[in-house]
Design brief:
The protein has six helices and eleven strands. By secondary structure, it is α+β, with helices and mostly antiparallel strands. It has a single domain, classed as DNA methylase specificity domains (Adenine-n6-DNA-methyltransferase TaqI, Chain A, domain 2, Alpha-Beta Complex), CATH 3.90.220. The strands form four sheets. Strands 4-10-7-8 form a four-stranded antiparallel β-sheet, with helices on one face. Strands 6-5-9 form a three-stranded mixed β-sheet, with no helix packed on it. The chain is globular and about 70 Å long.
């Protein structure tokens, strides 16, 4: 495929990925399930046995981090560091997005992020990234939450993996954008009070587990295809650069590929 075809494929895969996530977390996995109006424009119809509730019914609390002065470089393994807001961009936790805590600064041990934590950004230079949430699968030790990150504590019978997928869906993202714009004097910030008002489906725990497992499998396939397309683009770009370089330096003879002006006449 050419560059344009590969780029179109990547765009389609990203669009499909988002649609699959949004449908699964708001409509469920059973196409034959009876539906009912949620009463909420963002959600539309939901399975009849689900409820539409405010996030305050799902979240048990928030733990906010701390942002001391840090070195710009990432912390080496075993060093203390402070996570940056970019650690949750795209719904994927990246422990490399951190800054080293100076040796003379005492760490706040209770703010260390652990596998299984649900981390959410409350502020960012880019409004599109505010409210990004990711489940911590693996992480190097001694990384702390910054003051622009929340650790989300859930009510009983709530699955962190499902909630992470839910907050990456279009219906929830639309509400987050409105919550940011409605927070007067709090530009590029998402306060706890606004998060608690977001409307979400209340889903039985066993279905949450099934949906999370389904989305793990489906998105893994699409992410693999996207990575392959990105590698193909890189390879095509490298080949193109190599050909141009060879032609410019005379390593290949391109005279026979250029139409003769006399013949053309």
């Amino acid at each position: 495929m050419r560059f344009e075809e590969q780029r179109r494929l990547i765009a389609l895969l990203k669009e499909k990925r988002q649609a699959v996530i949004s449908h699964a977390v708001t409509k469920g996995l059973d196409p034959a399930a009876p539906m009912k109006p949620s009463g909420i424009d963002w959600l539309g119809d939901i399975p009849a046995h689900w409820e539409a509730v405010q996030v305050r019914r799902v979240f048990a609390g928030f733990e906010q981090g701390w942002s001391p002065d840090c070195h710009a470089k990432p912390a080496a393994y075993g060093e203390w560091g402070v996570l940056k807001t970019g650690c949750v961009n795209g719904g994927i936790f990246r422990d490399t997005e951190n800054k080293t805590l100076p040796e003379e600064t005492e760490p706040c041990v209770r703010l260390e992020v652990m596998p299984g934590d649900l981390v959410m950004s409350r502020a960012s230079g880019s409004p599109q990234l505010i409210g990004s949430m990711a489940l911590v699968q693996n992480t190097q030790p001694k990384l702390m939450l910054s003051d622009k990150l929340f650790r989300i504590l859930l009510q009983d019978a709530q699955e962190p993996a499902f909630i992470a997928w839910l907050f990456g869906s279009n219906p929830i993202r639309e509400q987050i954008v409105l919550a940011i714009s409605g927070a007067e004097g709090m530009a590029n910030n998402l306060p706890q009070s606004k998060i608690k008002e977001i409307l979400v489906p209340l889903v039985p725990q066993d279905e949450q587990q099934q949906i999370a497992a389904y989305l793990d499998a489906q998105t893994r396939r699409m992410d693999t295809l996207t990575a392959e397309a990105e590698r193909a683009i890189t390879l095509l770009q490298e080949r193109r650069s190599a050909l141009i370089s060879a032609a410019v330096t005379g390593k290949i003879d391109v005279r026979d590929t250029i139409p003769n002006s006399t013949e053309a006449a």
